[in-house]
Amino acid sequence: MTDELILQEVNKSYGPDILMLRDVNLTLAKGTHLSVLGPSGSGKTTLLRIIAGLESIDSGNILFNGKSLQDIPPYKRSFGYMFQDFALFPHMNVFQNVAFGLKMKNKDKGEIKTRVGKMLELTGLSGYENRNVNELSGGERQRVALARTLAPSPRLLMLDEPLSSLDRVLRQNLLGELTDIIATLNITTIFVTHDHEEAFAAGSTVLIMKEGRIEQKGSREDLIQRPANEWVRHFLS
Ligand SMILES: Nc1ncnc2c1ncn2[C@@H]1O[C@H](COP(=O)(O)OP(=O)(O)O)[C@@H](O)[C@H]1O
Ligand SMILES: [Mg+2]
User: Fold this and answer.
1) Cα(125) to centroid of ligand 1, in Å?
2) Which residues constitute the domain of residue 68?
């Protein structure tokens, strides 16, 4: 199948005593919206980083569209990664932030302008082109980060706790906005969170991680009505 992501028996450790991913097997068809839910330290960020190519793996294989990603550097994978703290470029305005990935791909000026305009419209930021990112609210910064991540048309979108740096009131509204935007895109999405409500809102399938292992993967109904074990039942209650 095209643009299918497959992880086979992936193991990752940081030194002999810190095993972060254990025998991770995962197949994601194109267009899947997956949430990865687990307590802090369960390996969620590590999972995203190895898919992005920001970390190597110790054993196993990662395939995309039938090909191993082993020797493909991060920038050649065409994956979008939105960091927990958004990591906007502080010395660039909104337009420049969103245009960054397109410039890196040597797109011409006209194409960049059109694409950035589209992304700002999608995220409700039309008219913000010349704004300084340091003067934006948390919610606006999140939307700039999303526009920047989506601008180069990634084949896979990864969001690492995209709401966690925002205050609670904002979070509820932005969760809806974010999931609405994601729902309009036919792009495979991996949404990482430690929050149950966010996980079920953002993904039709939720993968539960504990200590670097996948405990269970399924729909909300599967997980709540048929938890794989006592730990999952307790974690979701
Ligand atoms: N570069 C690193 N070196 C050593 N240990 C690391 C490194 N990155 C992550 N870890 C370990 O992984 C754990 C967190 O894993 P992480 O994937 O960030 O989990 P999560 O995102 O689920 O909170 C930390 O407790 C830490 O011990
Ligand atoms: Mg994390």
Assistant:
1) 34
2) 1-78+155-237
